[in-house]
Write a structure and sequence with these properties.
With 316 residues, this protein is an alpha/beta fold. The chain has two domains: 3-226, Spore Coat Polysaccharide Biosynthesis Protein SpsA, Chain A, CATH 3.90.550; 233-302. Helix content is 49%, strand content 12%. It has helices spanning 16-30, 47-57, 72-82, 102-110, 128-145, 162-166, 178-184, 210-228, 233-263, 275-303, and strands at residues 3-9, 34-40, 61-65, 87-90, 116-120, 158-161, 190-194. It has a seven-stranded mixed beta sheet, with helices on both faces. Helix 1 (16-30) links the parallel strand 1 and strand 2. The two termini are 28 Å apart. It binds uridine-5'-diphosphate (UDP) and magnesium ion (MG). Residues 92, 94, 96, 200, 205 line the site of magnesium ion.
Amino acid sequence: MDISVVVPLYNEEESLPELTEWIVRVMNENGFTYEIIFVNDGSTDSSASVIKRMAETNPAIHGISFSRNYGKSPALNTGFARAKGDVVITMDADLQDSPDEIPELFRMITQEGYDLVSGWKKKRYDPLSKTIPTKLFNATARRVSGIKNLHDFNCGLKAYRNEVVKHIEVYGDMHRYIPYLAKNAGYRKIGEKVVHHQARKYGKTKFGLDRFVNGYLDLATLWFQSKFGIKPMHIFGLLGSLMFIIGFIAVFVVLLLKIIAMCSHGFHFWVTKSVYFYLSLVFMVLGVQFFCTGFIGELITRNSTERNNYLIAEEF
Ligand code: UDP
Ligand code: MG
């Protein structure tokens, strides 16, 4: 099978028939063998029955319904697990992404050898309240992830080599950082294609302003995981040791001053009135805490099933 199209959706009943018809038309015109996997993320409208009806008339259409709304990432992850096509294409259900991009995305994966191609909504049809924070968000994501050539991390329209989607786990709200997840999994040939974008035709956006707060927190998590995920002691141990040393030096200063004071007559020194006393307390306690955190982190990674998962590129 050439292509699996994975569509996560939440309350998109109006868009589904039009979207499906469009995808099927593009597939037939280009002679692709395909499947469309609709992952219904706990919709409360009639999306499920719309998909069911379409699946009855076209055997290439499949539907999976969650029992409740889990989020876009879980929906994508579930779709990825089922995808059989050589190339997996994800797109939003709201008709903002154009199925006409599919042939070129397919070509970039199969002929130009990309692992992942992300759409770039160069000209966006979304309100300013969304486009401006998005620019900032993408700039940060580029820096932190080190994927310098991507302008639009969170575009719903993306294409993957099948192997890639089987080796990444999209959870929480991590769908915003799939290129980063792919890079961390060892897939480095990540490309971009300018794609046509449209204003939402039916329904309304499913993400509010909290996306930006959560987006940044998720980015911090991913950065930390990729840097220290399998060696937490390297950061916590280092910080802990540094703090402990600072605390220890402060103790030494306090002791020294006290001894000098005891030996001389005119000089009085109150240990509890000295700034070094407090510095030594804070730094030694914090240092030990950091150190222990690192140690616990090591014990956790030791028990993780992921600890020895390496992606082998080639065997000779
Ligand atoms: N979506 C989903 N689960 C959710 C929220 C959204 O499956 O909890 C789907 C939604 O139906 C759409 C896609 O994710 O197909 C993108 O959502 P939306 O268009 O609301 O995001 P925006 O374009 O505003 O960034
Ligand atoms: Mg949308």
